[in-house]
Amino acid sequence: MKKSFFILLIVLLVACNSDDKKIDKTKPISELNKPEQMNEKDKVKLSGNFYKHLKGKIGTEEIVADILKTEENITIIYHKNKSDNLVSCSGKIADDFTFDAKEMVLQGKDYEIFEAKFVAVDKITGTWSKNNKKLNFELYENYKSSIEFETYSIKKEFGKTKELSCTDEIILYFPKKPASLQKAILKIFFEKNEGKPEELIKQINEEFVKNFTAETFEISWSRSKIADIIYNDNNLLCYAVHWGDFMGGVHPNSGSNFYLFDSQSAKQLTIKDIIIPEKEKELQKIIYQKIKDNRDFNKSEMSIYEQPFPLTNFYINKKGIGFYYNSYDIAAYVYGQDDAFIPYKEIKNLLNKKKLTFLN
What we know:
Elements (H helix, E strand, L loop, with lengths): L1 H19 L19 H7 L3 E9 L2 E10 L2 E8 L6 E7 L4 E6 L8 E9 L2 E8 L2 E9 L7 E11 L5 E11 L3 H12 L6 H18 L6 E13 L2 E11 L6 E10 L5 E2 L1 H4 L5 H16 L18 E3 L3 E6 L12 E6 L17
């Protein structure tokens, strides 16, 4: 009898310990998975800047999401599988891996909020809310039809004197594979075909500081070069590099360059892969109208632009295709940049859906 009771006691103790490790979904997110439940290895992986591609559900609806963390800032961009509407929510991430991310909308409009926590390095849980509606959500890292990235970054400020300083910020999202895509990203970001990302970042930072130190003009310098993942799903990768610098002169310079790749072959795609070649002139007319509307220009004012508009610096997402023109691309610096975004539904007859398979 005593032996049976002793065995039963052991079983109960094991069961209790096992239950402690389970997530109690009835508790609020603030009480779920306290920081000590994430091991030291996972903490290291979540330190610094990172990018994650995730899939999961809000309530019963399936979603695809991208999360980008830069220092304490975090952004989640997602769309529902059955919708082309993109939602972007931003906030701050705490030391215990919790964050509240809020959608930025016009005053008076309902907005979405993610109250979330990394319960593991590859899993996020929490509550999604809009107005008075609340739903639980779970997201898991998923790279079945996308690319996994590592993040390399540096942010330094160097003061020559109290008045003169040099600031430099570099963030690179670097694909874990394939090697052909790695070479393409190195070429885009560093204008080199080989090298280790962390060493190349260190080299260009040291060169920037060295040039600043040698400069005799009494002026502060600044530079930023930040990668961005615009779309990473359905075997397509839209990659961007945003840059800005000021090293004297009349004005600072900035811009954004976009690149579209087939994720499987690592081949860089051109507009001819996305738009039926015979329809390019029709597309340029649509871009003309988009820019005209965005600027609120009349026909005479549109003469500032050089035409036809080039179709080289473009990006895609789940909702549509955009054409981005940096300063000097189509007009003088004083007019700034132009971003002509066109929803797919407006150009159905122009699209080559062999690559945009998610539209079929």
